[in-house]
Amino acid sequence: MGKLSSMFDMPLEMSEEKILDVIQRFRWAAKKAEELGVDGVEIHAAHGYLISQFLSPKSNKRTDRWGGPLENRARLLFEVIKAIREAVSPSFGVGVKINSADFQRGGFDSNDLRWTVEQMNDMKLDFVELSGGNYEMPAMGGAAQSNEKKSARTIAREAYFLEAAQELKSIAKAPLIVTGGITKLETANAVASLSDSTLVGIGTALGYIPDLPNRRAAGEQPVVKTPESWILPGLLKFAGSIACVHWNLDNIGKGKPIWTGVWPTLAVLWEALLDRKQMAAYKKWLAALEKQSGKQA
After folding, report:
1. How far apart are CA 202 and CA 213, in angstroms?
2. Rounded Cα distance, 17 and 33, in Å
3. Are 183 and 226 in contact, with CB atoms under 8 Å apart?
4. Residue 98: what are its φ and ψ, rounded to 5°?
5. Which end of the chain, N or C, is less packed with Cβ atoms under 10 Å?
6. What is the 3-class SS of 1-62, one letter each residue?
7. How crowded is the C-beta side of 110, counted as CA atoms within 13 Å?
8. Residues 58-70: tens digit of each pLDDT
């Protein structure tokens, strides 16, 4: 399905019971987040994660009410939004991150996006964030688009999903967030000038300068320098850049100082080891849960 497909296991079809359980898990997580003082949550429906897999006709081959036409493929996303909205207070923020396109032939495309956004207009969302691609065919930072016909305007602006926002600004009722490795002030200004309700995602920039908005508001012009690996090839070079951001954001979340000199190769290895450790812990927990369920049955 993508250049990195060999890194992933073959997906399994979920039962109706498991799908309904997942919806309740989203509901529980959002409610718990509000109880703990969080201001809002973002539902991740992009990048090939579970909801994204349901949305894509390339990965969703189901023949029941969760597959086939887009109305069915989008059902999981809509049910998750509905469940969360019913569980939290009206003032609690709820947004959706969704692909502008999967960048895969036969995948979720711009027509699917427009229909999905139109349907979400009446679901009381606080924002819709536009991204693209998945971890089999990355495009979140522009990786997949190197082989696509991109306008020089898009490249200059760093905002890889700006065209999608331009198309949706007259359709979407919720504010749009444009993302894609935006680090330059002129790029952010260009995105913000799209409309009064268009926001700028600067996660990458904050991974290197956490107080960037305050410094720019004070009239400073700090330059965000993102490291590039001269060892890692192709898409792994892209993975290295993303891993550096993850490294620093993880430190920020733990109250630790960032390390602007982190090596992309080291960051990739760190992230791979962390993922393996988390997966082992999850499988251990899942096995214990299934064992306990078997005893109760």
Report:
1. 9
2. 24
3. yes
4. -140, 150
5. C
6. CCCCHHHCCCCCCCCHHHHHHHHHHHHHHHHHHHHCCCCEEEEEECECCHHHHHHCCCCCCC
7. 9
8. 999 999 999 999 9
| pLDDT score, position 118 | 97
Among 73, 158, 72, 174, smallest CA distance to 122 is for: 174
Residue 101 C-beta-side C-alpha neighbours within 13 Å: 18
Which spans in 158-233 are helix H? Answer: 162-168, 185-192, 203-206, 212-217
Pairing relationship of beta strands 93-99 and 127-131 according to DSSP bridges: parallel
Residue 153 identity (one-letter amino acid) = R
Q: Where are the domains of the chain?
A: 5-201, 228-297
Which residue in the block uniquely carries the two structure tokens 């733990």? 254
With H, G, I as helix, E, B as strand and everything else as coil, classify residue 97.
Answer: strand
Highest mean pLDDT out of 28-32, 96-100, 145-149, 286-290: 28-32
Among 65-79, 151-165, 250-264, whose mean pLDDT is lowest? 151-165
* Buried b or exposed e, range 79-98, using 16+ CB within 10 angstroms: bbbebbbebbeeebebbbbb
What is the C-alpha end-to-end distance of the chain, expressed in Å? 39
Report residue 107 CA to chain centroid gap. 17
The secondary element (H helix, E strand) that includes residue 284 is helix 264-296
Per-residue DSSP letter, 137:
S
> Tokens 């039962």 belong to which residue?
15
Q: How high is the pLDDT of residue 136?
A: 57
Cα distances (angstroms) measured from residue 65 to each of 60, 74, 83: 11, 10, 18
- 149 pLDDT more than 70: no
**pTM for the whole structure:** 0.80
Q: Which fold has domain 5-201?
A: TIM Barrel (3.20.20)
Q: Assess contact for 23 and 80: CB atoms under 8 A.
A: yes
Choice among 52-56, 81-85, 144-148 with the minimum mean pLDDT? 144-148
**CA 48 – CA 287 distance, rounded (Å):** 25
Helix (H) or strand (E) holding 184, with range, is none
15 — phi, psi (to 5°)? -75, 160
